[in-house]
Amino acid sequence: MQYQPHLHITAQAIVFRSLVNMYYEIEHSERDLEQYELLPVLVFAAFTVEAYVNSVGTRKINFWSHVDRLPWKKKIEVLHLVAGKQTDWGQDPLQLAVQLFDIRDRLAHGKQESIVGPKCDTYMEAESVLMVQHLKPEWFALLTKDWVVGTRQRTVALLSHLGALHGLRADDFQLHSSSDIFEV
Q: Which helix H or strand E contains 151, and what residues bound it?
């Protein structure tokens, strides 16, 4: 007789664990972080939410294969609809999803933005404004260390909410794996 181990890994838990590590690095950084350093955490948070939405849908909704390719917002609406709940995009926890995906979509869909800087008296002054990167998209104003760190608990609340719609444990999104050993 032989034995064969099997490990069942959940994608959303791997993504969530990576996200927690990213938050840890930001929270414990002793230096001021650039907005460009904060941005990946928010993009990865959106990725984590979408991974968990798909995990819940796959496990709890028998027609999820027909929903899987829909935009993230439609998928969250389906999770709510099947659970008999309303979606309130203007309040947390769903408001965070809107904020995260707005940032992710701005980057993923690559549309050029034009930013007009202040009028400068000299060419050197105008060049300085460009070189020091004073010109940034309006939505960059949201990207502060405090706001990004604050999204950690909000993300956990969002993930818990999505699982609770379908009777899953509050920490289901972070359950990493299960294992078995089978006789072969």
A: helix 145-164
Question: pLDDT in tens for each of the 184 residues of the chain?
Answer: 999 988 888 888 889 999 999 999 999 999 989 888 999 999 999 999 999 999 999 999 999 999 999 999 999 999 999 999 999 999 999 999 999 999 999 989 878 888 888 999 999 999 888 887 778 888 888 899 999 999 999 999 999 999 999 999 999 998 877 778 888 8
* 8 Å CB contact between 126 and 120: yes
Asked if 80 and 165 touch (Cβ cutoff 8 Å), the reply is: yes
Q: 24-60 b/e with 16+ CB inside 10 Å = b?
A: eebeeeeeeeebebbbebbbbbbbbbbbbbbbbbeeb
> pTM for the full model?
0.86
CB burial of residue 145 (10 Å; 0-12, 13-18, 19+): middle
Asked whether 80 and 93 are in contact (CB, 8 A), the reply is no
